[in-house]
Here is the input.
Amino acid sequence: MVVAAGGAAPAIGAEAVAGSSAAVVPTEAAQPYTYQRFGAGERGAVTVALETGYGTRETRNFAHPGLEQGASLRVQATDALAVELFGGRLSEDGASQFSAEARYRAAEAEQAGVALDLGLGLTRDYRGDTIPRLRVAASREQGAAAWSASGNFEVPVGNPERDELDVMVALAGSLRATRTLRVGVELAGEDLEGLFGDDEAEGGAKFLAGPSVRVELPSDLYLQANLSAVYAVASTNPTATPIGDTWGLSSRAVVGWRLP
Here is the structure.
């Protein structure tokens, strides 16, 4: 899930593309990134999405080895508060994951200079571990451009073979190329505590970088996709899980529908 994972997220407006009343296009960046999610939106909006991820190596917050398929439901309770549920399954071993997260737009860019989003969630992950999660994101949209920076902090519960705290950070930028197309770049790192000490238990830090695209389609549909290279830095902890291949690929595609 996308972890997920995500951009500038002002309130979602909609207007028709000239010559096509069937196509609904957000007037602002909305949720433009694949791995970063935010709290603001149009009150009462409900979105369902199907996600497919593929990874050549373990990058826990972004992709898993082999094929992952999932579905999400997002409900915009207020203009500033959203709740999202996600369920996923790995094709290779049949493992499943479920997560729930509430996201709140704590400040708007007009008042604070940047939009500030806070998230609080709980995940039962593919390894069967329960993980409380805190998310903090700052973002801003200026004209056709948007950017975002976020941090994700997870505390695996009850598994001594996992880190006491997992840290993920992400940076993203995007540009509205047309009224229906937004292109961008996403950069992220996870298990970053492994760069600063020898107590990293899950192999070491991983870094991800690659392009993202979001396309608004007719009938309130949208498509998001990301393809990234992954680079892993082995932990200095001799008892850590082997990190595996140094280089890998991670990809994710999302098809969503905003319910009328």
About this structure: The chain has one helix and 14 strands. The domain at 23-258 is CATH 2.40.160.40 (Porin). Confidence is low (pLDDT under 50) at residues 1-29. The first strand starts at residue 15 and ends at 17.
